[in-house]
């Protein structure tokens, strides 16, 4: 008899739709999923929530945080109404418009993404409503609780060798790795997750996000 296929590796990924670094990490993760059995669970988090109360932010970034409420609220509303399974495909449709098409967190981007994801166009009205902010904040907090308040988006959680969940901020990478490079990064992350005493490895970014 042929060997049984390996069980998919459960991966949890927290993202804010407006974050370019989360977008590229998510595209890398999907590239890995094309070659390795992964069960990806998508979760929202919010840079606006993360930075609440901060007065030391540049005006341009503060404006992005304000505008960023719309997309993350729409994704949350879609998940609440249709189930978590819609989150991934709506995120892909949104991110393509926000980051690749240059539409930013606009109503045009949200409307087009809802249409592409075959979701009710009326969900766009939740962009300006706090109806599901409690659920949004709970999802955000779940991710932050795994890695600590001093990080951002994305957050990724995966199983260590003993089955316990290990979470990291990141990976922060540009452009999104493809092919062998994507798998090498994944394998390296699994090795880091296997070390119970490993917490941090970082260097300053010298390049902005590259969307290819």
Kindly summarize this structure in a few lines.
The chain has 212 residues and is α+β, with helices and mostly antiparallel strands.
What can you tell me about this protein's structure?
This protein has helices at residues 20-33, 47-50, 59-82, 87-100, 107-116, 133-147, 179-193, and strands at 9-15, 38-44, 155-159, 165-169. With 212 residues, it is an alpha+beta fold. Helix 1 (20-33) links the parallel strand 1 and strand 2 (38-44).
Beta-strand portion reads: 5-15%
Largest sheet: 4 strands, mixed
Supply Rg: 17 Å
Topology pattern, helix = H, strand = E: EHEHHHHHEEH
Alpha-beta classification: alpha+beta
User: What's the shape?
Assistant: globular
Terminal CA distance: 43 Å
In helices, the fraction of residues equals 40-55%
Give the strand order, joined by hyphens, for the main sheet. Answer: 2-1-3-4
Number of strands: 4
Low-confidence stretches: none
SS element count, helices: 7
Kindly state the mean pLDDT as a whole number? 91
Pfam families: Rv2466c-like (PF22234)
InterPro entries: Rv2466c-like, Thioredoxin-like_sf
Protein name: Disulfide bond formation protein DsbA
Organism: Streptomyces heliomycini
Helix/strand layout:
Elements: E1 9-15, H1 20-33, E2 38-44, H2 47-50, H3 59-82, H4 87-100, H5 107-116, H6 133-147, E3 155-159, E4 165-169, H7 179-193
Parallel strand pairs: 1-2
Antiparallel strand pairs: 1-3, 3-4
Helix pairs in contact: 1-7, 3-4, 4-5
